[in-house]
Specification:
Layout: H1 2-16, E1 20-26, E2 29-38, E3 41-47, H2 56-59, H3 71-83, H4 95-109, H5 126-134, H6 151-163, H7 168-178
Antiparallel strand pairs: 1-2, 2-3
Helix pairs in contact: 3-5
């Protein structure tokens, strides 16, 4: 009997080209849901309240107006073309659920899990990151560190002073530097 009512509602909604709005409790909160026919079933999508949604103008207000062209755009296109493909949801796993299950298992066994540090990342050149992602890593250009021009001379003096046998003049110079 329930299957007939379900099919009647689904087919009626499909023929009238309408969707239904309902309210239900999900994750301990009252949510508004859009229900629409899809294939042999009905699909429900949660909706957001107006105060939960920002306009795109406000969300992207501070985004600079940049024109991307040339090599960066070509690299982006190349990356997209090499990465695109079909979507298979079975290839994704819920890492949060797995971590919680591991934590529960460890508590049952009476052991503690070590705390993991978040991986740190250093700021990169966008073009270099795109190249690496595309597998087109160009030789990295290293920038010379700015430094004191005389720093090398000071290091040479210190090295030659330490190489000399202890004499009155070198030990006096060392005392003057230390003092």
């Amino acid at each position: 009997m329930g299957g007939d009512a379900f099919k009647l509602l689904r087919d009626g909604m499909n023929k009238a080209k309408v969707a239904a709005i309902a309210r239900t409790v999900l994750f301990r909160r009252l949510r508004t849901v859009l229900i629409r026919p899809h294939g042999k079933g009905l699909v429900g999508s949660t909706l957001n309240y107006d105060y939960e949604v920002r306009s795109s103008e406000k969300a992207f207000d501070e985004m600079p107006d940049l024109k991307i062209e040339g090599e960066m755009l070509e690299l982006a296109k190349h990356i997209i073309n090499t990465k695109k493909g079909g979507f298979d949801p079975s290839t994704f796993d819920d890492r949060y659920e797995a971590a919680v299950a591991e934590l529960v298992k460890a508590k049952i066994e009476g052991r503690t899990l070590p705390k993991k540090k978040a991986p740190s990342s250093k700021p990169n050149d966008l073009l270099q990151a795109l190249r690496e992602s595309a597998g087109m890593s160009a030789p990295a250009r290293t920038k010379r560190a700015a430094g004191n021009v005389n720093a090398g001379a000071d290091r040479q003096k210190a090295a030659s002073a330490s190489a000399r046998p202890n004499s009155r003049s070198s030990s006096g110079a060392q005392r003057r530097r230390a003092g």
